[in-house]
Amino acid sequence: MARLRSPKFRKAKLHISPERYMKWRRVNMMNKPKNFDEKEWKKKLEEAHDLALYKKEEIKQELESLIKGIDPVELLSQISLLSQFFPEGKPESNQDLRDKPILHFLTGLCLKNGNNSNIHPDNQEIGKIIELLDEYFYYPQDLIFQSVKKEQVSEIDGLILSARLQKIISQINPNVYPFQLEDLLKNVFGKLDNYFIKKVGFSVADALYFGQKIVKRYERLLNKHLGEAREARERARQELKDPIKGSQLRETLRKKNVTEEEFMESYLGFLVFTLTQEIFVFTIDEFCKDEEIKETEKFENYLKALSCKFGEVNKDFNSPLDENAIITKPIINIDGNKYFSPIPQNLIYNLPLIFESFLEEEKQRQTKIWQNYQNIKSKYTEDKIYEYFSRLFPKQSIFKNLRYNYQDQEFEVDVLILYDNKIFIIESKAGAFTEPAKRGAIKRLKADLKKLIEDAYQQGRRVRDYIKSSKTAVFKDKNGKEVLDIKFKPNKIDFFLINVTLEPLMSLATGLKRLQSLGLFEKNEYPWSVNLFELDLITRHIPSPTIFIHYLEKRLSAQDENIFHAFDELTFFAWYLEKGNFYVPITDKGETPNFVSLDGSWVAMFDDHYLYGKDTPQLKIEPDLVKIIRILEVLHPVGYSNIASALLDFDHQARGLILKNMNELINKTKKDRKKHDFTVLYKEIDTGFTFMTQCGREGLRERLGSYCAMKKYQTKTRRWIGIGRDVLDDEWFVNEFLYLDFPWKSDPRMDELLKTYPFKRKGETCVDD
């Protein structure tokens, strides 16, 4: 059964991305030959830019010339159907129509050029138009340099590309799954239903209901059409086998060197793409009757508010970056009484944009309605942040909307989380990433990113400064009641600054180091910036608070190193679920790359789960390590989150070896009732590990502590993890923990002890990689 394809998070397959551009630039600038001519290099970039502009304009003009002589409804119907339909056993057919905003661009051009013909396009014309559209998106160089002086090719170019790609890709990738979208619609836009009913004649729930009805109708008619086409093909197949009726056709196929199967597939295609308007075009009366719509007036209001007409919009539309009416008016009104939606998914996924467009007049006048909308968005974002983090952390450790006094002023912090020796300072931003910024206007790009990311970072930094500078940092609720006080202990507390945005910023948020080229983050410190709906998914799929802390630590470290690059945070998270870390992978040649690009295929696991009901994405982690982490989170030994992070720093191979040896020693002690231990040193991460077993708890902690301290000193290692097990206690997989983390420093007393006690035992190993 056919279903309209859901938009995916997967990155569009354009021929250049921010990651590829920055890699290309870094490689070329770092590996410059001695005779490198930078002037010549920039000249070639200018030439590539100018060629892209020329080719795209040439292609656009040819497209417009072709579509002027064709019925646009039939053209868009056939290409829309192509984007949904694929031959049996060939699911990747017509993939470019889904991975690039081809249909959006074509629809925009058709709306601009009007409805001047009723001539149906033939297969050759359809093929030529698709070929031209695909070629159009082959030239992205103009997206980089259009808004900067060509003699100033710099990091800013990559940011401009990121902003523009966000605008282009958001047309096909909504960055929100259906359950998230419905929640947003209900709890943000639904709060303004009284206004919308008065203004456009229907509610948010009505719009969602009508949109779903149209999509379901298309699916039903498409399946009916496909079924009839396949039945006709089977009848033709039987006639072809008939010794009398089929003999002449078989002879014709033989002369043309066409197999019977090829003919059947061609015949099916012909049947599928005949009378496509019967699937897509409807009248109000016909639709209401077929779909049992009782509130016809509401439906008429819905069609009126969401429809546009050929030739009446998109007067200045020339590029996917330009304003396109089909985004906020995804229904086309034909001849007054007929309606047609070439991209039916937009009826659902574009509802936030559609309803915000209804508020445009309120925005321009900055009315109370607009301010109320802004407040609703802000509260929604803050409430969701609290909800999502409550999945990981105890609610009594999460504090929302606290006030504090610092430097004779009162400030507010959105969310504070205290867990072990960690303090999470979370600031939310529900503002929009404006259209000029998406088009690459540098001043607006900087202003928006400052407002959405750096200002939140500065707010979080101010909270941290207050805590660190106060003997006791006091936080109060909105009524002035003291609800939290924090006594800061230097070198004992770790801070995490987190910025959550309602607007998806994609690669602009995943590589904050690049924003320094705009004069942002001049102190070389960066928060973790994440979209609200990505945070939702991360907190659904990370199994514990200490593992989240490890992800955050490694993610921030990777951001600072600026080697890993991805288009969104979900891609980074998918990598972590598989790898458990952000160690730079070694190439086949044994080299360490200075650039690792994670493509959009990493997030397919989330699409598979949330769109198609497949397995839940899970962290690849050893079951016994999960046991240890759970015990840490229950027993709360000193610095337990640090211990968990240190254990998670071991790669899967190292973890497997350690856990195997631990289980062997437990069984050995159970059998011979003797004390045993093993030690392993991993120089690459400057970490040692010791495990001890014995019968009974007496002396285990002291024995573990003294031995680990000596081994750490002896090996001049930064970190040491010690774990002990009383094998008589089967309730716990392990019982004792020790964690040492400080720089090595020479100590004469330790040197004397090592002379007396060499502290080298059989079975100790040192791992270099």
Describe the structure.
- The chain has 33 helices and 18 strands.
- It has 769 residues and is α/β, with parallel strands linked by helices.
- It folds into three domains: 1-358, no CATH class; 372-549, Trna Endonuclease, Chain: A, domain 1; 625-767, no CATH class.
- The strands form five sheets. A five-stranded mixed β-sheet has the order 5-6-7-10-11, sandwiched between helices. A five-stranded mixed β-sheet has the order 17-16-15-14-18, sandwiched between helices.
- Helix 26 (545-561) packs across helix 30.
- The two termini are 51 Å apart.
- Mean pLDDT is 87; it is low at 8-32 and 146-153.
Q: Would you summarize the structure shown here?
A:
The chain has 769 residues and is of the alpha/beta class. Strands 5-6-7-10-11 form a five-stranded mixed beta sheet, with helices on both faces.
Structural class, by secondary structure, is alpha/beta
- Main pleated-sheet profile: 5 strands, mixed
**Strands across the major sheet, in which order?**
5-6-7-10-11
Q: What amount of the residues lies in strands? A: 5-15%
Tally of discrete structural domains = 3
**How many angstroms does the end-to-end distance come to?**
51 Å
Uncertain segments: 8-32, 146-153
CA-atom Rg in angstroms: 31 Å
Q: Fraction of residues in helices?
A: 40-55%
Name the average pLDDT: 87
Total DSSP helices: 33
Question: Strand tally, please?
Answer: 18
Give the CA-based shape. Answer: globular
